[in-house]
Amino acid sequence: MTITAPRPSEPKISVLEEAGIRWIQIESPGAAEVDWLDAEYPFHELDLEDVRSRRQRPKVDDYDDYIFTVLHFPWYDKAEQRLFAAELNAFIGRDYIITLPNVPLKPIAAMFARLQADDELRAEWFAKGSGYLLYEVLDAMYRYCLPILDNIGRKLDDIEDVMFADGNERVLRDISNAKQEIIAYRKIMKPQRPVLRLLERDTVRFLAEDLEIYYDDLVDSSERIWDVLDNYKEVIDGLETTNESIINQKQNRILRILTVLTVLFLPLTFVTGLFGMNTGVPFEGHMHGFWIVSGFLAALGIGMVTAFKLARWL
User: Fold this and answer.
1) Which residue, 31, 113, 193, 239, has fewest beta-carbon neighbours within 10 Å?
2) Are 27 and 104 in contact (CB under 8 A)?
3) pLDDT tens digits for range 67-110
4) Which domain, by its residues, includes 229?
C-alpha cells in the first residue's frame, strides 16, 4: 500500500506499507512534518528538537520502544562545488522506520521509488523487519559514498600527471581543492565510526538472528572508506610537498640564472666604464678602438659562459 502526494496544506510525507511494516520518508522536514511526528508517535521531545535543528553530531539514542539515530554522509553541492555533510535522522521501531534527510538524498529517494514500483521486492524486504530495512537504507548511502571517493582519487591522479608540466599554474589550486574535500570527508566520517558500532548493538532487537551480520557489513564499509581517506590524506600531503619542492626548484633555477647574468655583466660593465672615463685610455683616438674593445668584451662574455657551463652553473 502506498500513500503519496499530500495536499499542500498537509505535511509532505511519503509512506510505504507492507507485511505490517511501515516506511515513512520525510525529505527536508519542516515545522509541519515535525508536528505531525509529535502527534502520531510518542517520540521524546529532545529527539524532535534534534530533527528541527539539523546541526547534530552523529549519535544513537536508545529507548525502550524505538531508536533515534543521527548519521552524516558526504553530499556534493554542485552550485558551490564543495563537499558538505548531509544529515540523515531516522527513527526505528518494531513495526516502522522513519527516515528524515535534511537534503534530497538520491539513494534514499531511488530506493523508495524502487520499492514503490516493485511489489515482490517490497514484500521480501519488509518481511525481514524494520532493522533490515534500515540496513538497506544505510547500505545504499555507503555505496553512494564510493563514487565521491573515487572522484577524489581521480583528482589526485590528474594532479600527479600534470604536476611536472612547466607553466601549470592550476596545480596549486587543484591541490588546495582536493585537500579541502579530503578534510571535509574525514570530518564527516570520523565521528560516525563509533556511532555505527552503537547502532549495530542497539538494532539487534529489531533483527532476526540470521540478519545480525548485516550491520557488521556497514561497519566494514565505514572502515574501508576511512582507510581510503587515510591513504588519500598521505597522498595529498606528499603531492603538496612535491609541488612545493618543484616551485622552489624553479625559483632556484631563476635565481641562479639571474645571478649568473649579474656576474657575467659585472666585468663587462667594469670594462665599458673604464673606457668611458674622461682620461687617456688605450686605443683612444684609434679608428679601430671600438671594434677592438667590443671584440674583447664578446670574448670575455663567451669565456665566462663557457666556464659557467663547465662548472655546471648553467
Assistant:
1) 31
2) yes
3) 999 999 998 877 777 888 899 999 999 999 999 999 889 999 99
4) 2-247
